[in-house]
Amino acid sequence: MHQLANLYLLAYNSLQALGWAVSLSRILSSFLDTRSFNGAYASAGDLVCLLQTVSFLEVVHGAIGLVPSGVLLPLMQWGGRTHFLLAIVRRIVEVQELPSVFITFIAWSISEVIRYSHYALHCMGSCPSCITYLRYTAFILLYPVGVAPGEMWLMYQALPFIKRKNISHYYFVWVVLLCYPFLWLKLYLHLFKQRRSKLGKHDGKKRR
Amino acid sequence: MKVTVVTRSGRELIKGGLELDESATVVDLQEAIHRRTKKYYPSRQRLTLPLQPGSKERPVALNYKKSVKDYCDGNSSNLTVVFKDLGPQISYRTLFFWEYLGPLLIYPIFYFFPVYQYFGYKGERLIHPVQTYALYYWCFHYFKRIMETFFVHRFSHATSPLSNVFRNCAYYWTFGSYIAYYVNHPLYTPVSDLQMKIGFGFGLVCQVTNFYCHILLRNLRSPDGNGGYQIPHGFLFNIVTCANYTTEIYQWVGFNIATQTVAGYVFLVVAAAIMTNWALAKHRRLRKVTCFSLFLNKLFPILLHTLKEACASYTINRGSNSGFLSDSSLYQIHFLGCFSFYVSS
Questions:
Q1: Closest partner residue to B317 among A2, A62, A171, by Cβ?
Q2: Where are the transmembrane segments (chain A) (predicted)?
Q3: Residues from chain B contacting residue A76 (CB–CB below 8 Å)
Q4: For tag attachment on chain B, is the N or C end more exposed, with fewer CB atoms within 10 Å?
């Protein structure tokens, strides 16, 4: 049973890593072709939506105890990202060509490729130290970039359009924007703590 | 027989104890206590058997239907009971009436009166048909609840602590205002006509089935409230333990499909969480009382049940006991609610 679960997780993480790698390559090639920052959603939007929706499985994994991540934290992270993606970017066509979408997708794609590769390699046995290093270091730059000029800037730009579609959602996004820095800081510091514990001891046992 | 009444700190509440007939019931005991201590009327009293010091068990509460003799061990006609003051009590009927009256009256205020000018929105307010139907739907719902409180429900515990009035009214009245504010807002954008009809239609069907569930539950109990815990059966109760909560939740899903406000969805999530908690407790109680095997699920009975069984066997093999699905009851996953939000135009 344990083998089956491991195989399943390996498959899941590999497919996600592959999916995010494909979306990263699509975004980069569209950028190189057109030399503009407007094509991110057009080139990879649907794929990113699919990957993000499917990643709800990670909440389920935590709920049933398949992985030790718990439920609440993955649920909050999934909820925040999915709300941003489906309720704002996908819903409001007018913001899909903004450069903030490009920034967000790039930040997400790079972090997710690293993260899922790290998990998948763990399922196969052990993870090469360079990937582990990347996993716990790349976030230092990618995370603030993805959140501030990425997600928050896009939400702010989307506000006038949201107001026209649904007034209650408009106020909700305002509240989200006000809370984001605090929630983000908490997660950011938590990742630093994890970094210290994972990268601190090079010869200690590495646990996912 | 002699009954000694002590408080939980060991102090004798009634000096010299009480003299009762051999045939006295717990009700008689409660009335005797009330006669001696004017302010502790029967519904305020919680009487339990004394526990051994250091015992971790829950105290045994005296059942008002039994006779006092049943609680005396063997020979003696002496009994000691531990008294706890539950505080001022209010009947459930009164409690429900006041908590449901708020939404029933507050919502129309936002619809009919020019409240929004005080929030800075001057000028005429255009009222969309969906807002009018939402008003009818909402008011019908709370009117139905009040009618059920007086004519349908049979309550096992007649009373509730008075403090619950403030807590429950705050919950209902605040959410009522929150939702009413956004649905009737001057800048409210309606959904498509079809979606509105689907939402309200589905919601109404659920309200009717919810009413039927209440009727089924009522018939489990006799008119004087003597029913205790029985397994509901028939209709939707064959699939879920608390079909009345299921239909209530889906009824709100219908309302939200038609109106699409964050306020409505927040209320849906909170209400569903509360009802799910109640349902799990009731499910646990029923399983203890009977050996009947039930499973509770509100969305995809077969799918989630299989998933849960598979994962339960996995977690047992792993030796861990984590995750909320490891209990014998299943939780509800609101896919329906989430997707309905994204489906809107």
A1: A2
A2: 133-156, 168-189
A3: none
A4: C
Query: In angstroms, rounded to a whole number, what is the distance separating the alpha carbons of residues B98 and B160?
Result: 13
Report which of B194, B195, B237 is spatially closest to residue B218, judged by C-alpha positions: B237
- CA atoms within 13 Å, Cβ hemisphere of A93: 1
Q: Are the Cβ atoms of B318 and A65 closer than 8 angstroms? A: yes
Angle between helices A99-124 and A40-54 (to 10 degrees): 40
CA distance to A76, B57, B158, B274, per residue, from B37 (Å): 53, 29, 21, 37
Three-state secondary-structure class, residue B345:
coil
Please, which residues bridge with residue B83 across strands?
Answer: B7, B47
Strands (E) located in chain B:
2-7, 18-19, 45-48, 78-85, 89-91, 159-161
Q: What is the DSSP letter of B6?
A: E
Among B182, B185, B314, the residue with its CB nearest the CB of A5 is B314
Contact call for residues A113 and A20 (beta carbons, < 8 A): yes
B chain contacts of residue A71, beta-carbon cutoff 8 Å: 323-324
Give the residue ranges of DSSP H helices in B113-162: 129-151
A91 and B342: CB-CB below 8 Å? yes
Tell me how many domains chain A contains.
1
Using CB atoms, which residue from B314, B323, B341 is nearest to A63? B323
3-state SS string for A123-151? HHCCCCHHHHHHHCCCHHHHHHHHHHHHH
Domain span including residue A20: 1-206
**Residue contact B185–A65, C-beta within 8 A:** no
Q: Chain-centre distance of CA A49, in angstroms?
A: 11
A64–B311 C-beta distance less than 8 A:
yes
C-alpha B260/C-alpha A168 separation (Å) is: 9
A127 φ/ψ angles, rounded to the nearest 5 degrees: -105, 130
Using CA of residue A61, residue A65, residue A68, residue A69, what is the dihedral sign? Answer: positive
Kind of pairing, strands B78-85 and B45-48? Answer: antiparallel
Q: Parallel, antiparallel, or unpaired: how do β-strands B45-48 and B159-161 relate?
A: unpaired
Q: Do residue B318 and residue A164 have CB atoms under 8 angstroms apart? A: no
- Could you tell me if B311 lies within 8 Å of chain A, comparing CB atoms? yes
Number of cross-chain residue pairs from A and B with Cβ atoms under 8 Å apart: 59
Give the residue ranges of DSSP H helices in B233-300: 243-259, 262-289
Handedness of CA A37, A41, A47, A48 (dihedral sign): positive
